[in-house]
Design a protein that fits this description.
Residues 292-436 form the O-acyltransferase WSD1 C-terminal domain. It is an enzyme of class 2 (transferase). The chain is built from ten helices and 15 strands. The protein has helices at residues 8-16, 38-50, 99-107, 144-152, 181-205, 232-242, 246-264, 309-326, 344-361, 423-441; strands at 4-5, 24-32, 58-65, 72-80, 90-92, 118-124, 130-138, 224-231, 275-281, 295-301, 364-368, 377-378, 381-389, 398-405, 408-415. The strands form three sheets. Strands 5-6-7-2-13-12 form a six-stranded mixed sheet, with helices on both faces. A six-stranded mixed sheet has the order 8-15-14-11-9-10, with helices on both faces. Strands 1-4-3 form a three-stranded antiparallel sheet, with helices on one face. α1 (8-16) crosses α9.
């Protein structure tokens, strides 16, 4: 294992973290247990297998490198931990009756920075028929796809395609290679133009914003999570009737559920069209490297104020098509790419300011996490449900993550526990919205 400097976006995630807003991803996997001791056995397996997964032994350490080109000030490196004890990262908990409630409390705890930033918590079910594993991976260590690969490496062996290795990078030199200067200049000018386009789009996206106080929150550091499981066949039925993609339908379901939820709680949905950030992976399929984050995004206005469920879906489809035509490298949703234009020291000094600015850029995160269709098992126990969970940005009360797995759609909702005490009502509204769309689409 070798060390490498964090990419700019990784460094941004590392530096915008605060005690009230930890920047880790989560995933709650529910397994069918074949015995009351299956959870304890799963914890033993996770600890034993973690030793053999190189990515799980990587810690993040601050570095200063003035004698390389370009000089590096205020950066951090991802490197093997000198001492790695898997028992520091895998914990078996007491039996529980509610996996989501326990995972919510665990979600609010920041990961310790002095060791590899990940954890696995095994939650046995009180009835002995199931157990859950709650994974946490810091966003500076992995994006959603990379985190999935790390977690899958701890499951029972399956035949998976080998990831394509990343070509070895040449060592840094004290001086630039003069032969590459013309290309570097052209690339820099192109990057500057792209940054200006993104900045202009962000400014335009803030005009005429009509969100809802229910989606904002003062930092409390508390977390509540909820999970919703839907039939993927129902989603395909709607998609075939109206058109678009599965992801279009899943986003429209969020818009409709927000409408129902806001109206029920008395906040009202009239005129509400919050900005949703839709992350887009820039990682090539079957590529394990490079580590860290390779993300851009799309920004759309969720048509919460539209009373017609089919109209909401068509509005989402139009907005997503417009974003796809423009591509993931331009537009307000590509704001993550601006991290590439900030020097490491700027990330370190400006991290707290950037963290507080998230509320100005978007109102809610709606992210899709790809999962393999393989039947994953742990200790012979099949994985039945998996709920992805996204970090909560400062000033925001709600984040939504969604995945499809073996014929089911799983929504993972993360909320500030004090700002959204009625998260269960929003979860129920997601199920109701799918039923509403099916009825609206007709036979």
């Amino acid at each position: 294992m070798t060390s490498d400097l964090l990419a700019p976006l990784d460094l941004a995630f590392w530096n915008i973290e605060s005690a009230q807003h930890p920047m880790h991803l989560g995933a709650l996997g529910v397994f069918t247990a074949h015995s009351p001791t299956a959870g304890a056995h799963a914890a033993d397996l996770l600890a034993a297998r973690a030793v053999g997964v190189p990515g799980l032994r990587m810690r993040i350490r601050d570095v200063w490198q003035p004698l390389v080109y370009p000089p590096t000030f205020g950066s951090a490196t991802r490197e093997p931990a000198p001492h790695f004890d898997p028992l520091d990262h895998v914990r078996l908990h007491a039996p529980t009756t509610d996996f989501h409630t326990d995972a919510g409390r665990l979600m609010e705890r920041p990961l310790l920075r002095g060791r590899p930033p990940w954890e696995a918590h095994v939650l046995p079910g009180e009835d002995g028929t199931s157990f859950a594993v709650f994974f946490k991976f810091h966003h500076a260590l992995a994006d959603g796809l990379r985190a999935l690969m790390l977690a899958a490496a701890l499951m029972d062996p399956v035949d998976m395609p080998e990831p394509r290795p990343r070509p070895a990078e040449p060592p840094r030199s004290l001086f630039p290679d003069v032969r590459k200067l013309p290309g570097l200049v052209r690339g820099t000018l192109s990057d500057v133009g792209r940054a200006l386009d993104i900045g202009t789009s962000v400014a335009r996206a803030t005009l005429g914003v009509r969100s809802s106080p229910a989606l904002t929150s003062r930092p409390t550091g508390t977390r509540r999570i909820a999970g919703v499981s839907l039939d993927l066949d129902d989603v395909h039925r709607v998609r075939k009737s109206v058109g678009g993609t599965v992801n279009d339908v899943l986003i429209a379901v969020v818009a409709g559920a927000l409408r129902t939820w806001l109206d029920e709680r008395g906040d009202g949905s009239e005129g509400v069209a919050p900005r949703a950030l839709i992350p887009v992976s820039r990682r090539r399929p079957r590529t394990a490297q490079p580590q860290g984050n390779r993300l851009s995004g799309y920004l759309i206005r969720l048509p919460v104020d539209d009373p017609d469920p089919v109209g909401r879906l068509r509005a989402v489809r139009t907005a997503m098509d417009r974003n796809k035509d423009a591509g993931p490298n331009r537009g307000a949703g590509a704001v993550a790419l601006l991290a590439d234009h900030v020097p490491p020291l700027g990330h370190r000094l400006g991290g707290p300011v950037v963290g507080q600015a998230a509320r100005l850029l978007f109102d809610i995160l709606v992210t899709s996490v790809p999962l393999p269709s393989l039947g994953l098992k742990l200790g012979g126990c099949p994985l039945a449900e998996v709920y992805p969970l996204a970090p909560l940005a400062r000033g925001q009360a709600l984040a939504v993550a969604v995945s499809t797995f073996r014929g089911r759609v799983h929504y993972g909702l993360v909320a500030d526990a004090e700002a959204v005490p009625d998260l269960h009502r929003l979860a129920r509204a997601l199920t109701e919205e799918v039923e509403t769309l099916i009825i609206a689409c007709g036979p």
